Protein 1
Amino acid sequence: MSSEESLLEVRDLRVVFTRGGRRINAVNGLSYRLRAGEMLAIIGESGSGKTVGARTLMGLLPPSAEVSGSARFDGTELLGLSERDIRRWRGSEIAMVFQDPARSLNPTMRIGVQITEALREHSDLDRKAARARAVELLRLVHLPAPERRFHEYPHQLSGGMRQRVVIAIALAGDPRLLVADEATTALDVTTQAQIMELLVELQERLGMAIILISHDLGLAASYAQRVVVMYAGRAVEYAPADRLFAGVRMPYTRALLGAIPLLDRPPHGRLPVISGQPPDPAALPDGCPFRPRCDLATDECGEAPPLLEHEPEHWWACWHDAAVPAVPDVASAVNGEEGVRR
Ligand SMILES: Nc1ncnc2c1ncn2[C@@H]1O[C@H](COP(=O)(O)OP(=O)(O)OP(=O)(O)O)[C@@H](O)[C@H]1O
Ligand code: SF4
Ligand SMILES: [Mg+2]
């Protein structure tokens, strides 16, 4: 992948944990690239390595994790940074928002204090200036009555409001990349859409890039400019969202999008269940990791296919792409009549 214009370039990232004598290949040769100001969705089944891959960028893995490969952010190799540099980096270049806002906030501290502390960690603002900036951030994330809410505790806010506060805290360091790991999954559908609208607004207003980690194909199709589909710790298809949803090429992606009748789809575009199990990351099969579940597999698939740019900007990892017909109109199928919103 050329590094031209990219803010983040992840290449052949591998993360191995050792637990009970077993080596767990959580991330297994992940490559993708993110442009400044772009929203990239990372989609995949549970256990495919989405969170571990993102936590690696933040230096948030247990020390026992073995990490190799490369993750360059605006020219700086993240994987080589010292603990001290990573701490300074975290929040000021890349910030992360997790699924459960309740766990990201301290229940015993007023929200204003929590944002003010985050601001003071990333800047030399005095207490008064930090407080004013905190209220400004609460306004930026559209928390109603920010001056009053400033003095409230997390339990006094709804789940959606708490997630807005978590996002405000993530913005305290003025990051260039926000990683939202299932940040809307715990919310009801209406609140989820409101938080997604907020992320898009922040992306546009602040010129901030966003990595949206999700099980939800509808979210990827509706909001992201580019999509990475992960399977068994690696990227198996990677393309601009409109191109991907107009014609998926890798059998796993196709299974996600087109293998089951639309009426049987789970609500809100969550990933359908594909027959068979994803491979155990402690015992990956030889060759293509999707082989045990793939009805197009041949002897050739005993060797793992590389992720290649088969068409301009459209990458996939499969020996038999030509055999996979495009799935027509997936975006409108996932999103209803309006199709892709971008
Ligand atoms: N600290 C750890 N020690 C050992 N194994 C781990 C650790 N963290 C994650 N794993 C394993 O790594 C693999 C990838 O996990 P990860 O959390 O990245 O998946 P995910 O794609 O984010 O899944 P989900 O959609 O459920 O959040 C899983 O098999 C998981 O059990
Ligand atoms: S390489 Fe073979 S097993 Fe893997 S997805 Fe393609 S056809 Fe299926
Ligand atoms: Mg996860």
Protein 2
Amino acid sequence: MPLADYVNALQRLRTDSGAAKYPASTLHRAPHKPLLLLSVLDLAARGELSTNFVSLTIDLGTLFADYWKLVMPPARRGNLALPFFHLKSDGFWHLVPQQGKEEAFAAIRQIAGMGQLRETTIGARLDAELRMLICIAETREQLRNALIEQYFHPDHHEALRQQAAINLGAFQYSETLLNQPRSGQALLAEQPSNSKQQVRRQGFRRAIVKIYDHRCVLCGLRLVTEEWKSVATAAHIKPWRIDHNDDPRNGLCLCGTCHTVFDLGLAGITEQYRVTLSRQISIDGNRAGYISTLENRELIMPDNKSYLPDLNALQWHLDEVFLR
Ligand SMILES: [Zn+2]
């Protein structure tokens, strides 16, 4: 099929509609399928669509969630499983069942959530011709524009396009941090000033959660929601404001609670990579809960030892932030 046919197919997706269910920003139609497709275009822009197979990854879930936030009210939760499953009725998206789960897969009419999808499906194959069009920058942008213009209010077009640019910039920044951290600043300088901070934060977080596979280095927590949001955050050991250092060795993957505890100096990390707790966690009135069990616990280490946290930065944190 030529480009025009795929533009046509993408603009005629079967989507739910209703003014009571969906806001004006999405032209009162369900935005799930267009947002998933925008996310897939972003994977291609990164060079991550080397075959026509689209896997169910947390990265894809994060792209989808970031687009969702732009066009949907904060109280509405997006579920990636819905468009991933239901796009199969649009002709170019072919789900691949898990081996041995073909019958269970064939029986599904309504998908319950990501759990059911992952149990029965390994991913989806795109039409090979569509994948080719998506992998060429010029035609990819034509398909992107077709989606944005068809399914979203003009007030949101610029933000959706900007999000695509931020997603690409953040990906490139994260890969640079992982491979040549010293080049990070140069790459950042090329970003437009209005999105530079977003690219930097998103890119730094992506690098850190990738190194630690979304696990909190202090308590070991790894939690991903049904919507495929990970609770993992990326913390700087020596804060960004001090020496603008996004080197992954100046980063830690932390859950929300441990992030706060570390930033407040209630926990530190010794040169043996063990947790040390401030006496202040047990002052009158505090109930430190599981935090008090972390004393002397060995840090969750990155598989790749070249990303080990920088001992100088950890010592700086012990000297300047840690509450003795
Ligand atoms: Zn934690």
Protein 3
Amino acid sequence: MNRKKRKRDKNTAKIKTSYYTISSPKLPEPFCGYRIVHLSDLHGTLYGRNHKVLIQKVREAAPNCIMMTGDMADQSQGAIPRLIDLCSRLCRHWPVYFIDGNHEQCLKEKEQASLQRGLKRAGVIQLKNSAQELVYKGASIQVYGLVMPMVYYKDWFREYRWGIKFTVQDAERLLGMPRGDSFRILLAHNPLYFPAYRDWGADLTLSGHIHGGIICIPGLGGLLSPEVKFFPKYDGGYFWEEGKQMVVSRGLGNHFLFRLWNPPELAVITLKHP
Ligand SMILES: [Fe+2]
């Protein structure tokens, strides 16, 4: 094996693909087998030249669409053009749904404008406290995107805050009342408020933000949340509460500290009509 190939294989090996099956009687039959690739918290990381490694991983998953749940770009050097380039490449093959995370919301005005322009040009479906009908084989479900105001992340001193509540009423104020009876996917960057999302009416929530707890302690789970809380409840993986489901991506990049025993994750979610 030559050096170039060895290096490529090493890069590919860095991303772990996780598989989840989401079963619900609310899912229309044609959606049985529908596959979503869930990407989150890339933080400007580049996997291979022109994102070759990441795109190859997506291709292997053979998705019907891609859903991005925030912090795909941040203020690091080159993160915005890299994300726009990635989205342009992905949009050629798959519909790409996108919500802002706290890091996109913190971009300076000029950076924010360039990101928005680039994503629009790429053809990304941006959801900002709005919904979009996802139609497949004549059936449909709803995809909602929540962009939570920064007050739910940080205080006036730009420090992560603890203990602020996000209620069902807050979800209604931002997203409106859930429409109709169809299956609802909610893209929400911060999984901390799963009880509110669930009680609002999200059948499946896709989240990120926690980066798998940054350091994963075998048998105990993720160690730290970005708010520096130890052993966050929703650190990564699959959660089920009151008949509602959530998948929390462990993220593809990093923002502070380092990832330990916690490989970057690409999640593949297969919908199933029981
Ligand atoms: Fe993040």
Protein 4
Amino acid sequence: MIPKRIEKYCLRHTSVGSKLLRELEKYTRRHCDDPQMLIGPHEGALLAMLVRLSGARRILEIGTFTGYSALCMAEALPKNGKLISCELKPEHAKIARTFFKRSPHGNKIRIRLGPALETLAALPASARFDFVFIDADKENYVNYYKAVLPHLRPGGVIAADNVLWSGRVLAPKKKADRAVVKFNKHVHRDPRVECVMLPVRDGVSLIRKRLHRRA
Ligand SMILES: C[S@@+](CC[C@H](N)C(=O)[O-])C[C@H]1O[C@@H](n2cnc3c(N)ncnc32)[C@H](O)[C@@H]1O
């Protein structure tokens, strides 16, 4: 949605992550179907910046794929930080784990294999996260949001990816298009949070849980 030249300019003036991240990106582009699912260095740097700015220690990710976004966030976590990443497909988790093993930050990450809604339902009621990244099947975005919000600490942030869905939110036709539109409306109407939608890559919404309910 943003002109390619402008995207390239932004990236040239952005602090990007490790060499291993570049290798993982190349590997994914060469060996995986749908490599465009990976968030890439610009959005990766945004997530890392948000993790550092928020001082997050406990992160939850929904949608590991080959582990790129998880590694971006893990690199920004403090030594004792922890990241749980949910992934449905064993073949994706296998690649991610191979790269996590090679990173000094990989020990912060645990992959939970299976449908993310089941993983979320199995979390203890006391589980708390400072930062959540939602980036899996669009049809479940509202369900993920509902399942995750009780576990987000007040002041904590959810980043939701693909909220512009290549612009299809303006003229939704397919089920996934309508699911993204529904998610965006749901969040915007929720008095428990405040939200800003950014036109970065395919659209990222930053959703902060309020400390107090709005009067
Ligand atoms: C867009 S990709 C994630 C990209 C990743 N965040 C990155 O930037 O590297 C979405 C991932 O969610 C996974 N996924 C889809 N449905 C899922 C579900 N119900 N539960 C858990 N993971 C799911 C897919 O297999 C895929 O690996």
